[in-house]
Specification:
By secondary structure, the protein is an alpha/beta fold. The strands form three sheets. Strands 8-7-9-6-10 form a five-stranded mixed β-sheet, with helices on both faces. A three-stranded parallel β-sheet has the order 4-1-5, with helices on both faces. A hairpin with a 6-residue loop joins strand 2 and strand 3. Helix 1 packs parallel to helix 8, helix 4 packs across helix 10 and helix 4 packs antiparallel against helix 11.
């Protein structure tokens, strides 16, 4: 899907239509911005990256060849706020994932050559060596850890959203979805979770739920708005943000928490340096400023880890 098409689709289902011009949120004394923008139909524009300085100790952890080249190839999945989305021009990527990657690169004295890629294509492309790292709100799962290394930077996870008139109040068990149409992103942990649990409806003598997958996040929300699905399963942060932008929807509940990380090819020598970079961002306050800017302070982690076990 083209960038302009994506922007148009998202605009159909948002109150603010992502009109960034003139919508910069108020800033606090520390220059970290305000959580209020995300809840008032505005997309934050506070600059929390440009003042980040290189940390020599973290940079020394990079392979010599990378330090000399000074650049890395990054693949970014662009979907919807607050993770990653296109600004009003339809071509500039913004969001928490973008800020974290750019800030970590600055700590390491690197420049990122960013290429936008579909969510489901990034992890295989890392294995082939096409990219050095990837972002896309990638949850750390035991299955993914078999072929991918992660450097964690936030904690997010799985949740649900519905229309305001839905009879669903909370989903504690996926069997509560039996008989419903569930919309989610293609190639995500949500799709895997739903498919793995699908047989449980038949075992309980109930009509199975239908999993409807979409490559574009805007299409997921359109399906819910147009009654082609009954519930959306997606990221906790993405759901909470989206329902503030769209009339007639409500966040249902968190279902499962997952660590989220930068993704690398298994065995990549880049992971120690990026772990040190994230922890440096926590030390200098940039980390908290990024979370505050995007209204995701509840997703803070205590320290960055390399490929930790999946949260159970």
């Amino acid at each position: 899907m083209s960038r302009s098409r994506h922007t148009a689709l998202f605009a159909l289902v948002t109150v603010a239509a992502l009109t960034l011009a003139g919508c910069a949120e108020p800033t606090d004394a520390a220059g970290g911005g305000s959580d209020r923008a995300a809840a008032q139909g505005k997309t934050p524009t506070t600059d929390v990256v440009s003042k980040v300085r290189k940390d020599e100790a973290a940079a020394k952890l990079l392979p010599a060849g990378v330090r000399e080249a000074g650049t890395l190839r990054i693949a970014s999945s662009v979907g919807a706020p607050p993770g990653a989305f296109y600004e009003k021009d339809g071509s500039t990527a913004a969001g928490a994932d973008i800020d974290f990657a750019d800030a970590a690169a600055r700590v390491l004295g690197l420049k990122l050559k960013r290429e936008v890629a579909s969510f489901e294509a990034i992890l295989p492309a890392l294995g082939s060596g096409k990219y050095d790292l990837g972002t896309g709100n990638f949850g750390v799962t035991d299955e993914r850890r078999k072929t991918i290394d992660f450097v964690t930077y936030i904690n997010d996870g799985q949740g649900f959203a519905v229309r305001e008139d839905s009879e669903l109040k909370k989903v504690d068990d996926l069997i509560q979805l039996c008989g419903l149409d569930v919309a989610t992103g293609a190639g995500t942990t949500f799709e895997v979770t739903l498919q793995e649990n699908l047989p449980r409806c038949a075992e309980a003598g109930r009509k199975p739920y239908q999993v409807k997958t979409y490559a574009d996040q805007a299409a997921v929300w359109i399906s819910l708005q147009q009654n082609r699905s009954d519930v959306v399963m997606s990221t906790i942060n993405g759901l909470r943000y989206a329902v503030t932008q769209q009339e007639g929807l409500r966040f249902l509940n968190e279902f499962k928490r997952l660590d989220v990380g930068f993704a690398f090819k298994k065995g990549s020598p880049l992971t120690p340096a990026f772990q040190a970079a994230v922890n440096r961002l926590k030390e200098d306050g940039t980390y908290d400023r990024i979370l505050k800017k995007w209204g995701t302070t509840e997703s803070a982690i205590e320290t960055s880890e390399i490929s930790p076990p999946e949260l159970k």
